[in-house]
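Order emerges. For instance:

***
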Amino acid sequence: MLLDQALLAVFSSDSAVALVLPTTDPVFTRAMEMRGSGQLDAIVGSVGPHSISPASLLERLDAGSGIRRVAIFSDQLVSALDAPILVAGRSGERYLSSIELALQGAYGFDIHIQGRDGLAPRPAEADPVTLLRRLYAHLDDCMELGSQWLAGELQEQRLPESRARERRVRMRMLQSAVMHMTIAADGRLEGDPARICDALAAMYRNSTRAQGVPHGTLQSA
């Protein structure tokens, strides 16, 4: 199978290795089996009994867990927390995950990414921009899988307009909650609701930067 071949190809090296894989039924099922048998040290994703979050992986690495063989399902990492880097390419703007950059830059992992032509070898250029281009192209390749791509419906959450809608909804909920907090038991308004809303609006404007870190314009490979 694809994942077994990938493991044989890259895990024979002395380096710590992370494989970026597409969420298809055979690949994801096999990854879970391999994690259960100990052939993989960790699986990073948002679903599945053996999956852990990017933050959890970094915590385990910092604790000296000895993790050296990791499968990352980047296509599942679509939240503002897990995918904060805004990248523009020929398929438009989308937010990409940052765990791969952290593993490569801070922990010395070799990052191997599955594409339409198989597992791409680690390029000689291991800089962050090259890695982001590869991750962008990986998602383009995943789109060609059609109905086999189980994470396809999640991808809208990567789009800037989707993130903007989420922020507006959260802000309206927060404003409503604060307004209710200013109503005293006897029905009188406490404080100045207009000033509270102005402050919340300022918080909203400032929070847009926290939802994604623009990284310039990249062209996908």
Observations:
- Confidence is low (pLDDT under 50) at residues 208-221.
